From TrEMBL:
Pfam family name, one: HTH_17
Signal peptide: none
Record domain Helix-turn-helix: where: 33-77
PANTHER family: HELIX-TURN-HELIX DOMAIN-CONTAINING PROTEIN, PTHR34585
Name of this chain's protein: Helix-turn-helix domain-containing protein
Length: 88
């Protein structure tokens, strides 16, 4: 296999990987899922805090193609409960 063939093969593999990632995002959006960055920005929290919440069972995650996602309903419920706690 020549160098040009190897480069073209690599480019095709990378393009396919990018396409899979785009499809994954679409599936997550259609299922009403939020990714880790969405949740962190909504609550203005760090990776560690989000991990702690998962470990405590405050937020359940779903893994799709190796990426963590959170159900929008679960995130909104947690947001309401956190807001109530801060008002008290």
């Amino acid at each position: 296999m020549e160098m040009n063939d190897k480069v073209n093969l690599l480019i095709n593999v990378l393009a396919e990987m990018m396409n899979v990632k785009k499809q994954e995002k679409f599936v997550a959006h259609e299922r009403n899922l939020l990714d880790t960055n969405d949740v962190k920005s909504m609550f203005r929290i760090s990776d560690r805090t989000l991990r702690r919440w998962r470990n405590k069972g405050l937020l359940k995650s779903v893994i799709i193609v190796g990426c963590l996602y959170y159900r929008r309903e679960d995130v909104m419920s947690l947001m309401v409960s956190k807001f109530r706690d801060e008002i008290k």
